[in-house]
Amino acid sequence: MRILHRDDIAGGQPVRVLVNDQPVLIALIDDVPYAISDTCPHNGLSLAQGIVRDGCVTCPGHFWRFSLRDGSKQGGPAVSVPTYRCWIEDDWIAVDVPPAPAQRSMREILLEHARQPRT
Ligand code: FES
User: Fold this and answer.
1) Of all protein residues, whose CA lies closest to atom 1 belonging to ligand 1?
2) Is 80 exceeded by the pLDDT of residue 76?
3) CATH classification at residue 104
4) Residue 25 belongs to what domain range?
């Protein structure tokens, strides 16, 4: 899905877009686009507000760094953010983001829990 013109992302600052109702960060590294989830797994802040440097984005909240190539957190606990296939098509940046999983209601969660065998 084409989501952004290449000129809209010039300058090195990441861009936040919504794809399939999911926030996605798009950034260029050496003119190659990368897409990762735009939700920091630590406290939910937008990573697109952070700084991109050396192939990583730094979260503005508490400075966790995530690789734009594979979504892995740099240093510390093994945490990562989802990555998405991203490419350039006729000067447009395209990204492939699967539909968001269906949200379950509290009732559905409680019913599933109640049906589990007791040990
Ligand atoms: S919210 Fe991102 S590091 Fe804390």
Assistant:
1) 43
2) no
3) 2.102.10.10
4) 2-115
Ligand 1 neighbourhood includes 40 CB (under 6 angstroms): yes
Provide the pLDDT for residue 92: 96
**The two three-digit tokens of residue 25, written as one number:** 């960060």
83-117 residues labelled b (16+ CB within 10 A) or e (exposed): bbebeeeeeebbbebeeeeeeeeeeeeeeeeeeee
Question: By three-state DSSP, how is residue 112 classified?
Answer: helix
The model's pTM is 0.85
Question: Which pLDDT tens digit goes with each residue over 19-50?
Answer: 999 999 999 999 999 999 999 999 999 999 99
Give the ligand 1 atom nearest the CA of 60. Answer: 2
DSSP E strand stretches across 30-98: 32-37, 51-53, 56-58, 65-67, 83-89, 92-96
The structural domain count of the chain equals 1
| Residue whose structure tokens are 């000067």 | 91
How confident is the model at residue 118, as a pLDDT? 79
